[in-house]
Write a structure and sequence with these properties.
single chain; 307 residues; alpha+beta; D-amino Acid Aminotransferase, Chain A, domain 1; D-amino Acid Aminotransferase, Chain A, domain 2; 2 domains; nine-stranded mixed β-sheet; eight-stranded antiparallel β-sheet
Length: 307
């Protein structure tokens, strides 16, 4: 199905244009060199309240601005401009279902030099209906041979397009081996993250997750999980996790905007727990779902209503 079949308009460089006209030139710098930063944001439609709620919109746009600064892209839009542009894009499309929002800032056309100062920075925002990214009842994952790019080679704290080639080839290896998702180790051999998700490991009631120095992207959903897990009374520890600890975990789950909170039921052919979502994972999943649908007052600062 074409992305334009349910999304009529896309925001490009300050204007709303018809989806079918949202094209870029073949000599766009980002197409050749991966010089772009982006975000993935979810919006949740509440049938009862007849409103669509965007989850942690401002936090996502702050991260995109920071990513652009890190990789050297010059944005001419501030935080309020970008937040309002997202709301405007979603509203004009009149969505009444769960959606995914993709803002992207990229080096445009004008030069094939590696120097991004010679080309303009362009910004676009697309939104479209979106369901589950991974199997909500649990996924089978493989620890792949490719290692996560280290932060002394690439700025992994930035959500930059070029870095995601690392994730693409990792996921390809996992899928070709019959698995649903990949897990990458960092340059030291410790657990880093999935191809597009952060990882949490539950052992004897304690939740562990790799630290920022394990070459992870500092996920906004990861931050949400840490906060709500502690509110629910669970201890959350950020530390290095050895590969073999995955095999003996009581529960494992992944988090990300697209993946939301997804249980892991198998790693490298080893069944995790009883082979189905564990009780702690399910409790966090249930609470997270209430939050994103604006049913938990204390987290309403994370919610942006559209209508």
């Amino acid at each position: 199905m074409s992305a334009c079949s349910k999304a009529r308009y896309i925001w490009m460089d300050g204007e709303l244009i018809e989806c079918e006209r949202a094209y870029v030139h073949i000599l766009t710098h980002a197409l050749h060199y991966g010089t772009a930063v982006f975000e993935g944001i979810r919006g949740y439609w509440s049938e009862d309240e007849r409103n669509l709620y965007i989850f942690r919109l401002r936090d996502h746009m702050v991260r995109m601005i920071n990513s652009a600064r890190i990789v050297g892209l010059r944005l001419s839009y501030g935080i309020e401009d970008l937040v309002n542009a997202v709301i405007r894009t979603v509203k004009v499309n009149e969505f009444q279902e769960n959606i995914y929002i993709r803002p992207i800032a990229f080096a445009g056309e004008g030069s094939i030099s590696l120097d991004t100062s010679k080309v303009p920075t362009r910004v676009s925002i697309a939104a479209f209906p979106f369901g589950h990214y991974l199997k909500p009842k649990g996924v089978r994952v493989k620890v792949v041979s490719w290692r996560r790019v280290p932060n002394y080679s690439m700025p992994v704290i930035a959500k930059a397009s070029g870095i995601y080639l690392n994730s693409v080839i990792a996921l390809s290896e996992a899928l070709s081996s019959g698995y649903d998702e990949a897990i990458l180790l960092d340059w030291r051999g410790y657990v880093s993250e999935g191809s597009g998700e952060n990882i949490f490991v539950v052992k004897r009631g304690v939740i562990y997750t790799p630290p920022t120095y394990a070459s992870i992207l500092e996920g906004i959903t990861r931050d949400s999980v840490i906060k709500i897990s502690r509110e629910l009374g669970y201890e959350v520890v950020e530390r290095d996790i050895a590969r073999e600890e995955l095999y003996t975990a009581d529960e494992i789950f992944m988090s990300g905007t697209a993946a939301e909170i997804t249980p892991v039921v198998e790693v490298d052919g080893r069944v995790i727990g009883i082979g189905s979502p564990g009780p702690i994972t399910e409790k966090i999943m249930e609470y997270y779902k209430k939050i994103v649908y604006n049913r938990v007052p204390r987290y309403r600062e994370w919610i942006t209503p559209v209508y």
